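Morning, I've got a small favour to ask if you have a moment. I've been staring at a protein lately and its backbone has me curious. You're getting the sequence in one-letter code plus the fold written as tokens. I've dropped the whole record in just underneath, so have a look:
=====
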Amino acid sequence: MIKVVVCGAYGRMGQEVIKAVSKEDDMKVVGGIDVRGVGESILGVTIRDDLEAVIKETEPSAIVDFTRREPAIENIKTGVKNNVPVIVGTTGFTEEDLDELKRFIDTNNGRVLIAPNFAIGAVLMIKCAELIAPFMDNVEIIELHHDGKLDSPSGTSIATAKAISERKQFKPAVQSSEARGKTVEGINIHSVRLPGLVAHQEVIFGALGQTLTIRHDSISRESFMPGVIYALRNIDRIKGLVYGLDKLLFPGGLVI
């Protein structure tokens, strides 16, 4: 039985994780952590605010974190110190955060997966973009999310730009300005935040006389759950700090 503690259990993503895990015969939610709703029951899970105490009481197989940048960093460190693998869907980490976390995780023999997107379709979108990049002249990314998302550009769009740049180096078609989005790895990223959206991204390639667009849409938060469940079932394959669900889905990397 895979025993799971959910951090951010009072939030929308946390509740989706609780529902998804509870449907699996080989998994069980043994704890929920949040600073909100302490003492309340969410889908049969009582919310508490002390992760370390819950770890000691429940001896979980894994922690799943969908919180915010600052608490996520502390939750990761708490999990690592207690020898519990941590699966993280929180975004907004800086390069400095990731460097610091890697040092901490390596020093303490931790196992952590940080994924900017758990939707398997989004991972496939990035892989398709990697495949296309060498054959096109330029590319831009438009990412669209609900108006409650705090970070921009999104973690998925940044991961997409970095993945593309490993295949081919691009330069913005027009000198970047505030109206042209943020440039990441030579690629302009445009962020939209509106009510009614969940998580969406377009990768638009251009070449002489043609364009090629890849788009992924998460129309509900349920779209992220198969990836979370897959990660939980593959926690034994997580060694050190692993960034991106693709490292589990495609351990051999991109094959052309």
